[in-house]
Amino acid sequence: MGCADDETKEKEPVVQEVKKPKTKKFGYILEDYEVVSDTIQPGDSFGQILFENGIDYGTIQQITDSVASVFDTRKIVVGKPYTLLKSKDSTGQAQVFIYEQNKIDYVVLDFKDEVVQALAKKRPVTVKERIAYGVIEDNLSTTFDDLGLNILVAYGMADIYAWTIDFFKLQPGDKFKVIYTEKYINDTIPAGFGKIKASWFEHKGKPIYAFGFISDSLKGKPDYYDEQADNLRRAFLKSPLKFGRISSRYNLKRRIAYYGNRIRPHKGTDFAAPVGTPIMATSDGTVIASEYRGGNGNYVKLRHNGTYETQYLHMSKRAVNRGEYVRQGEVIGYIGMTGNTSGPHVCYRFWKNGKQVDPFNIDLPTSEPLAEELQPEYFEHIAPLRAQLDEITFDKSI
Question: What is the annotated signal peptide range for this record (predicted)?
Answer without folding.
Answer: none
